[in-house]
Specification:
41% of the residues lie in helices and 32% in strands. It contains six helices and five strands. Helix 1 (15-24) packs across helix 4 (48-65) and helix 3 (35-41) runs antiparallel to helix 4. It starts with a strand and ends with a strand. The relative contact order is 0.25.
Length: 133
């Protein structure tokens, strides 16, 4: 078995703050979330915790990739990280610069864990690169 390299990112989001952003900044939802993410989250009576968990996953993935966000905050990189549902467990799909950086790092697989409870949502992302033997 060949050794692996693991990169990890984690993020915590305050749900009421994200709820305010969704309500007050009309373009925020479209700028940050893909159509599939919006459809999924808006299918719940209270979509804010679901959006918050996905926002946390996007930031956690960017941290794991070593990209982070610009000092200006929300930018196009957030839409490059997409939380997708295949079956019951969420997974990540990377696009654009995020996908190119993952390829450069030799990322072979991704894992994402989402949770939300009360005022907080959290995500943890693990990126695995199998090294050559």
């Amino acid at each position: 078995m060949s050794p692996s390299r693991i990169r990890h990112g984690i993020d915590l989001v305050h749900v009421p703050e994200l709820r305010t952003l969704l309500r007050e900044r009309t373009q925020f939802e479209e700028r940050v979330f893909t159509e599939a993410e919006r459809d999924y989250c808006n299918g719940f009576p209270d979509p804010a915790p679901h959006f918050a968990a996905r926002f946390a996953a996007k930031e956690a993935a960017l941290k794991a990739l070593g990209l982070g966000l610009t000092p200006l905050g929300v930018d196009a990189r957030l839409r490059e990280v997409e939380v997708v549902r295949r079956g019951t467990a969420p997974t990540l799909a990377l696009h654009g610069r995020s996908a190119r950086e993952a390829a450069r790092l030799g990322v072979d697989s991704t894992s994402v864990s989402l949770t939300h409870d009360g005022d907080h949502a959290m995500a943890a992302v693990i990126l695995v690169s199998e090294e050559d033997a």
